[in-house]
Amino acid sequence: MNKNPLIALKELGQSIWLDNLSRKLIRTGELKRLIEEDGISGITSNPSIFQKAISGSADYDASLQKQLDRGVKDPKELFWGIAFEDIAEAAEILKPVYLATHGQDGFVSIEVSPDLAYDTDATIKEARRLFSTIGKKNVLVKVPATRQGLPAIEQLTSEGININITLLFSVKRYEEVVEAYLLGLEKRAAKREPIDEITSVASFFVSRVDTLTDKLLEEKFASASGAEKEKISGLLGKAAVANAQIAYKGYRSLFDTKRFAPLKEKGGRVQRILWGSTGTKNPKYSDVKYVEELIGPNSVNTLPETTIKAFKEHGRAKITIYDGLEEAERVFPNLHSLGIEIDQITDQLEKEGVKLFADSFDALLKEIANKRDAFLAEKGSK
Prior knowledge:
By secondary structure, the chain is of the alpha/beta class. It has 17 helices and eight strands. It has one domain (5-208, 240-322, 347-381): TIM Barrel. 58% of the residues lie in helices and 10% in strands. The protein has an eight-stranded parallel beta sheet with strand order 1-8-7-6-5-4-3-2. Strand 7, helix 14 (289-292) and strand 8 (299-303) form a beta-alpha-beta unit.
């Protein structure tokens, strides 16, 4: 019998986390099955995921009713109430993984409100609240990797709060995220407070880089000469993996330094790099492209259920993160020669990512407000 490729990834040192969370997934036992049979060792959530879980579903109606009976009316507070329940239940299911891996895996992530992405102080305040309210060691609070998010990462890390840095697209910003994490650990260690239970991951988004870069390349293709057409064709579908490979190279070197050594001696953990947005959006590409081409030790890949299923069926598990690294480092100079700048691409993707999550969150709150009004109207008519 062939080995489950997902289990093989685990043996290569890469953790697979599920990029989805819903009450149905928890209550039907599907989450437990994914953990036990497929080696899934963590969960990430975001506003879009919660919107899909709650919209058009009756799974959360009883929970909403209970909160309304307690006098909770604000849509955001109603949302946090049901989100806390899901996160806490999922954290309990993953607790054995957390214990077995000595706190490296077994985490569930919950994101601060997307409308706080450009507000450092409000992000810090809300992250403290989320972490303390849920009260589980195996919870990560997601903080966007905006410029305003960097000091929040440093401060929250110094307070012993586990952080998942999200919406990270550029190698330069990734280096700044690592710096914020290290400063947080150093600040905490200087106060003689423990750092051995702090966990952090840096979620480096992948597929969206290809989506935007390919769009720009295709726009240039129409008016290009014969030689340029060949060059453009050779760059399609290359930017996202190259960007991630360069980030991984930096990850390995940033934590193999004299600076990190004393933190490591005190139990400080490497902030693992995590591949996010790894479902394939372009049907021309393999449905497991952003899994097979980014397999590296001591990393995480967070996958939607469709990609988990696809990799289990026909994925190949072998270390690939270093394959073609020299070629990857030529991708961005080649794009530059065509007038396409990776810094502009990643800046645009960060802005679009923040807006996308904020829009999903607004839609979610409207959905909850509509349910609230319908429940209250029904109650009033009785």
